[in-house]
Specification:
Structural class: alpha/beta
Distance between the termini: 11 Å
Largest sheet: 7 strands, parallel
Strand content: 15-25%
Strand order of the largest sheet: 3-2-1-4-5-6-7
Number of strands: 13
């Protein structure tokens, strides 16, 4: 099986979606499939920008396309020309035209059996769409987040009316043409497909994020503290305010409790100011960013892994850290909207506890419950779930892709 993999986010730039894509290609290679990756330099906030030793096998496969930004006139003309060729004047269309051209070049040298396009950016689907049409190649499009015009509150992405309509048309065109669309959760797929007319036939499947390499089980190593770890960036939307308020109540009620909470990722001033406001400096630390594989090793030393979602009306997201956490043999404390994807998974498979992100009282009771369990034997391993680990396992994800490949390639 020869696969062309198109994704704007990929190694060596380690951000959440980039890591998901890189892990998936690693699993494809382990299966014995051949892969070429067309990607771009990640200009956003990443954890690291160097190629980790563990990603080394990916280096020969990566075709990172770059081009001069150019002055205003050059950018204007290139954007117009690229929009005419690609059919959609979207952000990133200059890269999309070059990715399409490079895909044709690679295919003519050594033909592919299937093309995959992946988040983190909707624009990755555009070169895959044109390539699939031009060379009659089966195409599987992955959507890990809502399309730009459909992000729910409190996430905000201001778009003019014409641009919202353009993204709506783009989504319908892409999803209708793809042989398969994949979503990490049933909720996200259902949410997006509500905005597709019933006259359009959309083939889709749920394929969760792929887990990290499984870590060996061992006892937590953070001294005698009740130790928690959160990996990844916080934000205005994914605010720890309710959590910090609940922790402040907890440490006042249980004076002298040996609790320690470490946040790994890019530090933000809002979160640090909240720590100061609630007087949590003795308990909460911001530890900065680590490389992906190093972070896995460090996280496995804690008693508890923390996951915080935005306060959404409908919890449609499946955070990729959920897949990484599942392979660490450590329980998860998930603070999410009621009925979220994460809450449903933990209810079905175990692996920790989930509480309502909008309720300080619910979070406090969750901390209290976990603390009493930890006091009993200095361990929360009984909460960990083999079933949750299997849900995100490499074997299960590869089986899902193998099934789709057999169907669309034959």
């Amino acid at each position: 099986m020869r696969i062309l993999f198109i994704a704007t986010g990929f190694a060596p730039y380690t951000f959440s979606e980039n890591i998901v894509n890189s892990k998936l290609v690693m699993a494809f290679l382990a299966k014995g499939w051949e892969v070429d990756v067309i990607s771009k330099k990640d200009e956003g906030a990443t954890y690291t920008t160097h190629l980790e030793e563990e990603w080394g096998v990916l280096k020969p496969l990566i075709h990172e396309l770059s081009y001069p930004v150019g002055g205003p006139l050059v950018r204007w003309w290139d954007t117009i020309r690229s929009s005419l060729v690609m059919g959609f004047p979207l952000d990133g269309v200059r890269w999309a035209r070059r990715a399409y051209r490079h895909a044709l070049l690679l295919h003519d040298q050594h033909p592919y059996d299937v093309v995959l396009s992946r988040s983190p950016n909707d624009i990755s689907h555009l070169p895959a769409y044109h390539f699939a049409k031009a060379r009659s190649i089966p195409w599987i499009a992955n959507w890990n987040d809502p399309v730009a015009h459909l992000w729910p509150s409190p996430y905000t992405l201001p778009l003019q009316g014409w641009k919202r309509r353009l993204y709506g048309y783009f989504m319908k065109r892409m999803m209708s043409y793809a042989h398969y669309n994949t979503f990490p959760s049933q909720r996200l797929g259902t949410y997006l497909l509500r905005h597709i007319p019933s006259s359009h036939t959309i083939a889709w499947r749920v394929v969760p994020h792929i887990a990290s390499p499984r870590q060996r089980p061992h006892t937590a190593e953070i001294a005698e503290s009740f130790s928690w770890c959160h990996i990844g960036n916080l934000s205005i939307e994914r605010s720890p305010k309710s959590l910090f308020e609940a922790i402040s109540l907890f440490v006042r009620r249980y004076r002298g409790v040996p609790i320690r909470i470490d946040f790994m990722g890019r530090e933000d001033e809002v979160s640090r100011s909240l720590v100061s406001y609630y007087g949590l400096e003795p308990y909460v630390r911001f530890c900065g960013s680590l490389s992906y594989h190093r972070s896995l090793e460090v996280m496995a030393r804690y008693d508890l892994l923390l996951l915080i979602e935005a306060d959404l009306k409908e919890g449609i997201f499946l955070p990729s850290k959920m897949a990484d956490y599942s392979g660490l043999t450590r329980p998860i404390f998930a603070i999410t909207p009621k009925g979220s994807c994460v809450a449903e998974l933990i209810e079905s498979y175990g692996g920790g506890i989930c509480v309502d992100v909008s309720s300080c009282d619910a979070i406090f009771k969750g901390i209290e419950q976990l603390y009493h369990l930890w006091r009993q034997d200095r361990s929360l391993c009984s909460l960990w779930s083999e079933q949750l680990t299997e849900y995100f396992s490499e074997e299960r994800i590869i089986e899902a892709y193998e099934s789709m490949f057999e169907e669309v390639v034959g």
